[in-house]
Structures are given as structure tokens and as C-alpha cells.
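Database export, one record per block. Field names are fixed; values are copied verbatim from the stored entry.
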Amino acid sequence: MSPAVPPRRQLILATSCLSMFITALDNSIVNLALPAIHNDLHASVSSLQWIADAYTMVLATLLLTAGATADRWGRRRVFLTGLTVFTLASLLCGLAPSGGWLIAFRAMQAVGGAMLNPVAMSIISTSFPEPALRARAFGVWSSVYGASMAAGPLVGGLLVGTVGWRAIFWVNLPVGVLAIALTLAFIPESRAERARRLDPVGQALVMVFLLPLTYAVIEAPGIGWSAPRILVCLGVAAVAVLGLLGYETRRAEPLIDLRFFRSIPFSGATLTAVAAFISLGGFLFISNLYLQDARGFSALRSSLYLLPMAAMTLIFAPVSGRIAGARGTRIPLLLAGVAMMLSGLMLTGLGRGTPDWWVLVAFALFGLGFAMVNAPITATAVSGMPRSQAGVASAIASTSRFVGQELGVAVIGSVVAAGIHGSTADAFATASRAGWWIVVGCGAVITILAVASTTAWAKSTAARVADRLNLEDSPAPGPAMASHAPSPGPLPRKEI
């Protein structure tokens, strides 16, 4: 029989899950409002890409540093700061007078959001030291992500269709205020016994890599890939990534531990995360614009069309975790890749007259694929890692998700924008087909990686990396070790 969870720890878990809910909801709900923002603020397609990407780009660059900062300065303090910044930025997003201000406030939202999810995971881990209770707590945490995906389209459609697009940001205010009050009342302060060193140089290099790369991908279709500023941005990004690789290999506690990538399953999980979330970012961006611009649907009706995708994610995400735990990650990853490929193929012929049932089935297939891919990514990333390294490995996997989603909006959005010729409703539907072919390609990548990263040879590389990291993580042998408790070993698998 599973042990009961004390009421105070239930409140700690609920408070942590509130932070996941508002950040994940905000990430999915904004895409539904893009057509309304376009009409109200007269924003261009590239501005809409920045409104979606400013959040994911800043979040991706700060996610790795946030956990180390909280371990050093106090998890409760950083978590409260994140909630306050996110809530205030949500208010400002709802008051934004122009597309430029909205982009800036979205970036501010991401600064707060980066302090929430990784820190909340640390709070849950320290509040639930018992393995059985910790596994249950992270199961609840995982289900909240699926619930936010399911709620996002419906809540967004209702708010945009009745109150207006600004309400999608204001809905965060009561949830944020409640989470702040619960944090002050119930979450104790905690710090790591041995906090990782901060890596400001590595953090700066990650930002210098992602910002100009994103700018080049979004703006190049409008001004040309050979434009001087685009070439400069690509050059800066290339120098930054080379500098990052050279600098991180010389640090004892790097921001990104490159040794992890010697494990084929870990590298496969990272690439799978990027491919899956490129598909997700492109799917959310294209589908909302297609439904509202090409088909002329209202925001509420569009949200109903997206419900099959969200419902499949909610239903099958826990199923994926159970399959991965019982049978390994190959089966759910194969299902994910094939489902995404089929969905993309069905949507490559999209037009204004495409039958509704065809669109709904394609959207449901995409939801099935996305549901199947999330748990195996995290399970592979943290499996076998020592306790001191599992959090870093999980953070790298989470960062890969946001980088993928950012690239999905930037790359697929730019490809679609470049293919629009004319201002008719059919123009966008025709241009979107190239974006759906990218989704097909990402599904194929996931399918190949599902096999390549689960072979006996791939598993042997993971074992070698885990053994090396475990050896480095173990205390040096000596007389004093006799009085110490055994090493806790690797963390149990958990879903994010």
C-alpha cells in the first residue's frame, strides 16, 4: 500500500504544480491569440514569430542557470521572485500598446518563468525524499502539463472570443497571486548542501548563440539570406557555439556538461526533444493561423478544432510513461515518430476546402505522437545518472525542448511566410504545406532515433558514461567512509 502524503506536502506539491500550469498554459494559449494580435496591433508575420519566440528563447537560455542559482541563494526565494516577475509581466503583456512592447514583456515573462519549473522540481524533490512519494509527486507534476495542453486551446478560444486577446495574459494574475500566497505560507526555504558554481560566461555564450540565430532565421525571408546583417548574425552565432564548446570543456562544473553527449541514448534524447518540439512549435503556429485566417473561423471555433490534439496528449502522456517504464523507450518513440509523420503527411495537402474530419484526424494523430514522445525523453536523460548529475541532465533535456519549440516557430514560420504570394485566404493554406513537410521530416528523425538510440551498442555507451560519472561522484575511499551511509545512487526515473 502506498504511503499517505502529509497535507502540508500536498500543498507544497499543489503550489509547485500551479507554476507549471500557468507557464505551460501561457506557452500554448498565446498561439491561439496570434491572429487577433495581428489584427489589433497590425503586427507582421515576423512580429508574430517574435511574440511566440521571445518567450521560449529567453526561457531556453536561462533554464540551466536558474536551478544552480536557486541551489545557491535559496529555492523559495528564487521561486517567489519568479512568480512575482511572471505575474507582473503578464499584467504588462495585457496592457502592451504595440507589438514591440508585447515582445519585450513576453521576454520579461520568460525571465520569471525560467525561475519556476526547474526550481519547483527541486522543491518537490527535497519535499518528497521517499522514493515512492517522490515518484507519485512527479506523476502529478507530469499530468499537470497534459492538463495545461488540454485547457490551453479551450480557455484561449473562450477568452479571445469573448473578452479579447489581452485576457489570455490577465488570466495568469489570480493564479500567480494565489501561488505567491501559498509559497509564503507553506514552502520552506532550502538550499543544496553543495551548490553548483554559477557559469556566467557559459550563460552569456548560450544567449549570444541563440539570439542572433533566431533573428537570422526569422528575418532572412524578408531581407534575404545574403543581407549583411543576416551574415553577421550567423557568424556571431557560429563563433559563440565554438566558444561555448571550447570553454565548457575546461570547467569543473560547466553549464552544459559535454560528457553527457558521449552517451548515445542521451544524445538521441536531446535530438528527439529538439525534433519533437520543432514540430510542436510549428504545429501550434501554423494551425491557428490556418484555422482563423484561411478558414475564417473564430478563436472559439478554432479552439474546438484543436481539442482532439490536446485531448490525445492528456490521455496518452501517462500511457507513454508506463510503456517506457515496462518495455523501454523504443516502442513509445516509434509510435511518436510514425504518428507525427502521418499527421504531417495528411496536412501537406491542406486547403480551404479540406474536409473537417480530415483536419480533426490529422490533429488527433499529432496529439498522439506528441503524447508518446515526452516521457521517453526525460526517462532516457536521467536514467543512470548519479544524484548530483541527474538534475543537470534533466535540465539539458528541458532546454532542448524549448530550443526546439523556438526553432519550430522561427524556421517553419519563416518558410511559410516566404511562400505566401498574394493576400487571398488560399495563399496561406498553400504556403503552409512546406511547413507540414518539415513536420514530416521531424517525425522521420524521431523514428530513426528511436531505433538508433536503443541498440545494445547505444546502451553500452550510456553505461560507460554513467559508470564514469558515478565514479567521479563517489567520495574518495578512506577510513572515514565506514561511518557514512551508502551512496543514494541514481535518481528514479521521472517524467517532466
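Remark 1: The chain has three domains: 8-189, 200-252, 260-469.
Remark 2: Residues 478-496 have pLDDT under 50 and may be disordered.
End of record.
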